[in-house]
């Protein structure tokens, strides 16, 4: 089942987010991680919010463990994000 994941990186900056994307070898507007269906980010009053839709919770958890955690620490984002996960009822794709 698809899930939506909202990650709030308190104290993070968009500049750090851009460094994370670069270190993961992604390009804004390009394809994302295997299993990821959709991704967007924004600044918030206290940091950065990233919202994803993933094919499965397991794919997200593996990517979070192997990529998000280590790379966000590497660029200096303070602490792990607050994560909220939702079951997705439906989603649409560009076609």
Automatic annotation (TrEMBL):
<protein>
    <recommendedName>
        <fullName>Antibiotic biosynthesis monooxygenase</fullName>
    </recommendedName>
</protein>
<dbReference type="InterPro" id="IPR011008">
    <property type="entry name" value="Dimeric_a/b-barrel"/>
</dbReference>
């Amino acid at each position: 089942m698809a899930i939506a994941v909202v990650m709030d990186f308190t104290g993070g900056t968009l500049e750090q987010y851009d460094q994370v994307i670069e270190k993961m070898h992604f390009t804004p507007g390009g394809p994302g991680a295997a299993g990821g269906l959709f991704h967007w980010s924004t600044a918030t009053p206290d940091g950065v919010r990233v919202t994803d839709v993933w094919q499965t919770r397991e794919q997200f958890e593996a990517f979070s463990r192997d990529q998000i955690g280590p790379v966000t620490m590497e660029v200096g984002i303070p602490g792990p994000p607050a994560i909220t996960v939702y079951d997705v009822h439906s989603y649409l794709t560009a076609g």
